[in-house]
Amino acid sequence: MAAVAPQVSIVVSTKPSQARPPLRPVRQLVLGVLGVFGFKPNPAPGTANNPILEGLWGAYRRIESLVSNDTPTVKGAAVVDTSLTTDGRVAVTLRVEFDDYDGNALSYTTTDGAHGTLTRNTDGTYTYLTDASTAGDTVSITARDKGFHLHGLLGMFKPGGGHTSTATLTLTLDPVGEPPVTDVVISTPRTGNSWTVRVPSHNPEVTLTAGQPGHVEITRATDGSYLVTVTDSAWALANPGTQITVVATATTRDVNGEIQTVSSTVPIGTVSNLMTIGGYLQPPALPPGTTWVQARSSSIGEVLLRSDGAAFLVDIGITGPIVVPELPAGLTYTQVAAGDGHYVLLRSDGTAIAIAGYPYLQPALNIPDLPAGLTYTQVAAGADHTVLLRSDGAVIAIGTTLNGETEIPDLPAGQTYTQVSAAGYVTVLLRSDGTAVAIGINELGQTDVPAPPSGVNYIQVATGAHHTVLLHSDGNVTAVGYNSHGQLQIPDLPDGMTYVQVDAGHTHTVLLRSDGAVIAIGWVPNGIPTLPDGVVYTAVSADHSYTTVLFSRV
Prior knowledge:
- Residues 68-128 form the RapA2 cadherin-like domain.
- InterPro entries: RapA2_cadherin-like, RCC1/BLIP-II, Reg_chr_condens, Ub-ligase/GTPase-reg.
- By secondary structure, the chain is mainly beta.
- It has 3 helices and 36 strands.
- Residues 152-157 and 178-182 have low confidence and may be disordered.
């Protein structure tokens, strides 16, 4: 909907007040004599005076201006044009004309208003520039004659020595037609399913209503912004990825002065598709058209990856706020990992960065430069170490190696690594032949990875520091290590179903089934919520005591 420039009216007041120039007998005599020969001080358009008579009149005026001077006067002011700039501001072109009775050249200075600026253009017009929300303002133009005058001591007591005149312009801007309110709605994500919405407008008759009444509430703050919140949690659980909209309505006048109501429906956010179970951190709300695609938790927070390639840290801030570095132009984040006190993020150019939550973790942050032509394709993070899978199938591990967790085994000829997992002081590696190897601390048997059953390969591995979980190509699961809370007791599958993803926390195991259900075993005090009909889980993540799940409509 195109915005329309407002109507602008102008009122002019002058200082000093305008007065008719006094009668000058000598001037009248000179004009009378020259008039005998056909001279006219203001010839009609298309006509000209005799050059000799014009020269005599000019000589007289120069002599007269030395001994007598009149203040410049304002002939008139008018609005020439009103338009909108590309950034939505209002530009008003004004013509303000001054006259000097003595014929002196004039110079001009402008004074800005409280809400806009005034500048003189090369063609003698003026441009007033202001925001679209401005309803009125006052600016001024001062004209000064440039002549040298010997007009006595009294002239010193006149404003500006009698050389200046100021025109004060009072501008009134009235919105016309369809206002920009329905085009510009600014939404800022808060947390969970809430957003701050602002509607920049010069129209005070703006109202905002929810596009999902009964599920979404809108409250207006004292600063004029709106808080939009999904208050129906059951509806939100049943509608992940739904676009939250508001209806912006403005009352305005059309070009004929008739009252009209203009409305527009604008998306301001997306219902979250992420749930953290057992945690207390609130993820950011989603902008329109985005979803969460990955989440990893640690002992100090959570790192989240959004569908547009943006990454976010939701951290308890033990050492102060932790900020995700700004990406170079054209790059996105493609994968995230969380250790006990640091985070690792993979970028779309195949490089990786690590961010510390604790200063002592510096060795785990020194990610090596890549050889020419290679990229990192996957990242993982343990307590004090970082593991990176390279595009050539090699694995690089850096950081503390108290238990051999960074001592990557050599591969058999022709084999590559295809997946990495890390937690605590353990690293688990999946190989291209469908076998897996685990290294690091083994006081609980967490690195005693068995060979897969005959005819079956491992297709995914996960470690929770104290136990390791391995997904088979036939959809079954093996778990080894610590079994303090039954985290190794994998449930049998219903007929026709398989497990499609696995993950491990410190004392629990999380399994995603092919029907979109999530099975959690071990220490899971809050359980996994049952989803409404038509909604399934799509991804799982287990870290420490947290379980993070993604879900969507089918």
